[in-house]
Amino acid sequence: MRGKLAINRLRERPDLSAEVVTQFVTKYASPIIEGQRATFLFRGEADEVFVRHRVVGLPDPLPMKRLTGTDLWAATVDLPAGSRVEYQLEVRRGEHYERFNDPLNQRVAHSPMGSSSVCAGQGYQVPDWTQPDPEARSGELVERHIKSKALRRDQRYLLYTPARFNTVLRYPLLIVHDGPEYVQFAAMKTVLDNLIHRLDIAPMIVAFVPPGDRLREYPNHAPHARFLARELLPELEAAYPLVEPPAGRCLMGSSFGGIASVSTAYRYPGVFGSLLIQSASLVFTDIGQDHGGGPYFDPVVKFVNKYRAKPTRFTDRMYMSCGIYEPLITPNRSMVSVFREAGITVKYEENRDGHNWDNWRDRLQAGLSWLYPGPQRYVYE
C-alpha cells in the first residue's frame, strides 16, 4: 500500500464522493510529487483535459484521465530528481478550448509571453542568491541612450554599476542581449548584487541592451554586431575604468541572444574575450536545408553551417548551458566539441529544465563565477 501513488489509492476507494475528492485536492494540491513521479490534477466538468508543456520526450498535449464518477482529472509522468517543468492546462468543452495556469498550483513563472505554472521535481530549490538579500548592498541601475548609426536609431539600454563603485579600480564589462528581460524575468540585478556581496563574482559593469526587431537583428546581423563592437563598446570604455581587453569584455545572451553573442564575437574576433550563452539557437543542418525552425532560423542555420565547416577561435572562453528538456539540447551538445576544436576553452553544463527564464536565472552563478570569479580568485586564464 505504501508504494502506491496517492492518485491510485484514491481510485481504489469505494466512496469517491465530492467531499472525498475535495479532501484529496485540499491535501495534495497539484502537481503531486512522489519520488520521481509527478501527478497533475484538474477538477471540473470538461470533455477533455490536457497538460500543455514544452518538454522534449513527453507527449504534448499530455491527456489527463477522469476518475470514474468524479470531476477529477489526473495524469502521471516520470520526473527525475532536480527537474523543473513549466506547463499549463487545456480544457475542451464541446468545440471550445481554454488554456490557463493550473488553478491548484500556486507556483508561477513569468516571461515576456505571459505566465506558466511550475512543476518542481524532488530536490529542486530556487537558489537563495536569486532572492533579495537585505545585507547585500544595491548596485545602481540607470537608463542610458546612445545614438547609433549602425542601427539608425536612438538605442536605449540599462547600465548597472556595482555598489561601492570606485573610479580608481578596473571592472570587467558584461553586455547582455535581451537585457531588460534578464532584469525583469531572471532577477539579474538582484543576482549581481548578491553574488558580488558574497564574493562569488567580481564587481562588474553590465550593459543590459534590448533589441529592436530581435528576430531580424540577432541572427548574424552585421549592423547589430557593428553597434556593439564599434559604438556601444567605445562609449563605455571612454566612460568607465574597465579591465584591459579582451579579458574584460564579455557578451551574453539566451536563445536568439545566444546566437547574437556568438555571431558578433565571430565578426569581431579577439574583441570579446568571453561569452556566456544559454540555450543558444545554434541550429544547423548536416544535409539539405530542412532545419524545421521556420524562415527566422534561415540566417542562423547559414551562419552555424558556415562556422562548422571552418571553425575559428574568435574568443578565449565560453560558458554554455542548456536544458535537457528543450529541443536545442542536441545542437548545443554538438557545438561544444566544435568550439573546443577551434581552441576555445568551453565550460558546458546541462540541467533538467526547459527553454525559459528561470532556467537561465538558475545558471547565472555558475556562468558568471567561472568567467569572472570573485576577488579571492580574481584571475583570467
Automatic annotation (TrEMBL):
One of its GO terms (biological process) is carbohydrate metabolic process. It comes from Nostocoides jenkinsii Ben 74. This is Uncharacterized protein. Pfam families: Esterase (PF00756). It comes from the Bacteria.
